[in-house]
Design goal:
The chain has 232 residues and is an alpha/beta fold. It is built from eight helices and seven strands, in the order ααβαβαββαβαααββ. The radius of gyration is 17 Å and the shape is globular. It starts with 11 loop residues before the first helix and ends with a strand. The structure holds S-adenosylmethionine.
């Protein structure tokens, strides 16, 4: 995959600071996790869940606590992010229900199909449209038919007035939740260069091209949009 160098951005310093840096955004994350648990609530009691780009493990730990019979595969290309995830899962007594894979999805050893895949704030780093379709297609290949994809990404039509308004709110949100001024200034340049915000209809068609039924947008928090879609 062409974006394999990107996780350098998620190196040791970033991993160590990640949870603290975004702690004040927890209400947004909590809403996302709560709704994901509602989307997935009717999966079997022993469901198998794949978390792609698990980072420091927020979604995995939330779902593992809520659904004690579920088992997890955590895929993460950044060794330092995955180390934090593994340590937290261990501290919460969840590690025995998890397999941790350092690398990309492509190198995850094959296994029984998963019931659901989460990919939260990950596909936005795959800049090329074809590569992003391939990213969703690779997820579809790991799912059972009818299995769920849940993806959340920064998304917007960046040529629109709505985007400019949402970006202003987003940057104020970063300011109000304690991000340093230089970091906030950098964000304007980052979007479009290291992070690809796509219009919602483009996201929808990439997910469908990846092998899914039309996705359902179930949450928007400023620029973050969350969809679920079922594998065809
Ligand atoms: C913004 S973090 C989100 C982490 C976690 N999902 C969360 O919601 O807190 C994005 C993570 O995706 C990982 N990542 C980036 N590109 C990836 C890719 N192509 N495949 C899998 N993971 C990727 C990064 O290393 C990073 O840990």
């Amino acid at each position: 995959m062409q974006d394999q160098e990107r996780p350098a951005a998620f190196g040791p310093a970033h991993a160590a600071a990640y949870d603290e840096r975004y702690a004040k955004l927890a209400p947004m994350r909590d809403a996302l996790h709560l709704l994901i648990s509602a989307v997935l609530a009717d999966l079997p009691a022993e469901a198998r869940i794949l978390c792609v780009g698990v980072g420091t493990g927020h979604e995995l730990i939330y779902l593992a606590r809520k659904f004690p019979g579920w088992r997890f595969a955590a895929v993460e290309p950044s060794a330092s992010m995955l180390d934090v995830c593994r340590r937290k899962a261990d501290e919460c007594g969840l590690a025995s229900r998890c397999v941790f894979h350092e690398g990309y999805l492509e190198s995850l050893p094959s296994s029984e199909d998963f019931d659901a895949v989460t990919s939260l704030l990950v596909s936005q780093f795959v800049l090329n449209l074809e590569a992003r379709t391939d990213f969703f297609r690779a997820i579809a290949r790991r799912l059972r038919p009818g299995g769920f994809l849940v993806t959340a990404d920064l998304a917007s039509d960046t040529t629109s007035g709505t985007y400019q308004n949402l970006l202003d709110v987003w940057l104020r949100l970063m300011r109000e939740t304690g991000s340093p001024r230089e970091q906030i200034e950098k964000l304007r340049g980052t979007y479009g260069r290291d992070v690809a915000l796509l219009p919602l209809d483009v996201m929808r068609s990439l997910i469908v091209s990846g092998g899914f039924a039309p996705p359902v947008l179930f949450l928007q928090t400023v620029l973050i949009h969350a969809w679920y879609a079922r594998r065809i």
